[in-house]
Fold this sequence. Notes:
A: 4-stranded mixed β-sheet, B: alpha/beta, Rossmann fold, 2 domains, 5-stranded parallel β-sheet, 11 strands, 12% strand, elongated
Amino acid sequence: MKITKEVLLRVEGEALLELDWNKGVIEDAKIILPSSRGIEKILKSRPAMDALVITPRVCGICGHAHLMASVGAIENAMPKVGLSEKAKLVRDITLISEIIQNHIKWFYLFIVPDVLKFKSIDLLTPLKGKRWFEAVKVSGLTTRIIALFGGQWPHSSYAVPGGVTSDFTEREISKALSILKEVRTFFLEKTIDMQESEFANSLKKTHYGFGGDLGIFLDICADYNLVDMGKSYNRFITGGEIFPCVEPAHYTGSRRLCYMNMSCVREIKGEGYSKAPAVRYRDLPYETGPLARQFLSGNAVVKSIHKKHRDSYITRVVSRVLEIGVMCIQLEEKLRELYHHIDEPSYIEPSEDLKNLSGEGAYAVEAARGTLIHRLTIEKGRISEYSIITPSQWNLGPRAGGLLGVAERALIGLDDSHKAQMVVRSFDMCSVCTTH
Amino acid sequence: MKAVWLQRFSCCGNTHSLLNHEDIEFLFGEIEFLYHPSLSTEQEEHVVNKVLNGEIHLNILIIEGAVSRDDSLIKDLASVSDFVVAVGNCASFGNIPALSDESLCGLQFRFKSWGGLLGDNFKGKKGLPVINLSGCPAHPEWIAGTLLELKRKGSIELDEWGRPKKFYSSFTHWGCTRNEYFEWKVESKSLGTAHGCLFYKYGCRGPMTGSTCNIILWNGVSSKTRAGTPCFGCTEFDFPRENLWETRLFAGIPAELPKDVPKRAYIMISGIAKTFTPDRLKG
């Protein structure tokens, strides 16, 4: 029996992996998150609107999702907030764009370099390969869509109770569509090597034939026996909605139920090695994120891969990569729809002044990594309690109540620490979100 | 030019800001990143040890995130680096993490006090104090521009906060599309509109925040104020202030005036501006 401890590479923020080995096999695993920034603490007693500036700073890669959760929770605490269709569409457009930029970076910067240890490919090599740079560029381009409507990315605060602050024109919509075309072309030609119609059809099929960089990745995984590693509880949850392609649901391991009851989501104190509390749904650990979203929304390819490989490394990676394409389709529809709503107000002043408000609010959104929940209590316009449950807390949080965290459980039985790091990264680990 | 980038108490936002740089491939060609936690495949420890045992001469140490006062590794690395760069408001001034934790600070400041982890008198081997690229996050052009200038000239001119003058001596409202409203003291009547200035009611810090946000724009296309959001002053030591969406008024005028404008001048100019405001701006 020996214990090893190593720093996790290429994850968002700082994290350590502690592994207990028995005869060359991992018998126990702990994901150690040593630091926390106390963001919930500094929100206390501030005016509620300050949350719109401070909570995006939880995370440099999904800050926009925090803004959406924050504004949703504040609106939920207010009586009757009117939102124009235009404002709703813009919020979805920017949220989806953030998911797309995240997934592109995650696949090329965090995931692919792992398999290059088995077989080196110059094109994909970090900081050197042509494709690596193309991916960074396309991901950066995607954030430009957010800036067109939200001013900047990272860290904008353009969503406010009652709508959005920007008063844009058709020009911004057309520009966003043009950027999207470039992003989608990169995804279709380079990432999966498929025609557009072929991709749309493939989502309905139960067999798949991905080429491109995903194909290369899958071949290496098959050659080196990486396909079935990383299985966990096989329970999935999605709490937010991205109309019409994602809606709240959960899968218990045997049944799919088409709702998530927010009052059944609980944070419980985990063991002290992680600064993050564990999150449970009806007292059980659930996996959230693209695999959960795609599985629960009936993506046929993902369901067929899941049928064969369950919630393994490969199912997780393929779900996330395919979500780029699924989200591109949604983004185009929403952008085109936005032209029809251009004359609506961006912002409708809420009937009640937030400064006098007392109440409680909660809101769940789908961030790149899964379900993000903000809850707050406001007393006379000021925050008296703020609580954030991040997707990475669901997936990478510690053991509690005798049950391992989702990612911890996925590491048991592996025979190599590099593989353990790969599995952790398949959850798209964000330690800055987990501890916030 | 060899650089090492380390993260401490941060959201990684400066990393993602940098990755948005339009000429990232060129930058990584000019500056060799020996280590970056989000990009490298090598272990931090290996690279850091090579620097500390003298095998590698480190030109630029870049820190993202607030730091703990007892971070001896950063101290050791800073003492052998030509230049030390704090990227973002957390590494510069402590920012959000330092608000909730007394033991955290920036590299050479804690909010407005000199000191920080490295102390008042710290200078890198080439003679400059910590170069603060403040901002939450720092604009990618500020990061790239500074690194390239250090490579080209071996120095960069800094202001009293240790920030490169070329990026921080202008104000956020330079280039703001609402400037005519600012001149004539016309406030935005509501959020969600391109008209009116956000300085008078919505807390905009554009006239007293050092940046080039509205000159070079974010993501190449926009800025907070252009998108109708006030500037929150995120390049200054006191970010995030309390009550970020509201202008504090004192006897009907903003309690904090644009930088270096005397109150008497402000009141006189306001009177004239308000009397003669062109109708087309009143809307």
